[in-house]
Amino acid sequence: MATDIPGLAQLWRSFENWLAEHAPGDYGSLLPGCSEEDIQRLEDGLGFSVHEDVRTTLELHNGVTVRSASTEPGAFLLGYSLLDVDGILAAHRDLVSMVEDAREEGEEDLVVGRIADREWVPLAQNISGDLLFVDHRYHCAGELGEMSFGDPEYRMLWPRMDLMMADLCRSVETRTPVTAVPRVPSVHEGRMLEWQVRSAQG
Fold first, then answer.
1. What's the pTM?
2. Contact call for residues 147 and 130 (beta carbons, < 8 A)
3. What is the pLDDT of residues 153-169, one digit of tens each?
């Protein structure tokens, strides 16, 4: 089944095309891709090489125009805004600080690998500071996780980014929920994509 999924870059283009037609505000928020020098700066700041899915995404779009309010477009990834290189580094520093604080306080078991980890690379952030991240731990490499402040543990949403993008493309085209979370797409004011949370009862 997975072998029938298009490549990540193609999936991103399909998603962008949908945004251009149905959510032009979100499409207009996309920024140009970053340079190889930017990716090298990112890897130097992280202290390790980024997963190819992160590289592919950044080469296509180095984030989106920063939102100052929830009424502004750009949060088309399940309510999260794609981060640029500087945003990734800043969010990663916050995760590292959480890890270091937990170790100093003897709470490593409650934090590391549960709500923060040095090997999580933030991909997108919502207006509350919650994160979508790409796991870079060896046994979880490439997985897409969601870390929400206040939750005791992160959630693994997709095992690979191409599966995430394929799911998002299918969801917006059919207006049905994504498989990983009970969220349904809708277009607000003809300009931006929103994701409505659906209860287990529907």
1. 0.93
2. yes
3. 999 999 999 999 999 99
